[in-house]
Here is the input.
Amino acid sequence: MKKILLLILSVVLMMPVFAGSKRKADKDTEHFRYEIECAGNGVQGTYLVKVWSYSRKPSVAAEQCKKNAVHGIIFKGYTAMNGCVAQRALAQNPGVEVEYADFFKQFFSDKGDYYRYVSLTETAQEVIKVGKEYKVGVIVSVQKDDLRKALEQAGVIRSLSQGF
Here is the structure.
């Protein structure tokens, strides 16, 4: 009986430690700290981008690359390089992220709606140790046409057919 009670007590005491590691991973990536660059030409309706994410754990950074790629297409765009044409951000209004904060909080939640518009193109990733954390680069494909339609339907961005 004492052994069972001791086992239950140790499991209960360890729960905050496991929950804390998830919160720490979220904290590492909650401020969308990343770099985005063109990785070549994707199929029509997509952007092929390389995203570099930062975290203390390489696996966390690699998973965040998908979220960061969609975030970059919506809010940053990328410059011309490596034979690619520069792409402007889908959201032209810089205040849209704050204005629609509730929408984007749900959209970028773990396995949120953003996940529909991004896919890994390669399983290979580049990992660079930078101080106490890792910089992880992954090439992903973002379905920009479908993403634009979803944001237009949600009223977050204006349709291309609307006047200037």
Summary: The longest helix spans residues 2-29. Confidence is low (pLDDT under 50) at residues 11-22. The two ends are 74 Å apart (CA to CA). The chain has five helices and five strands.
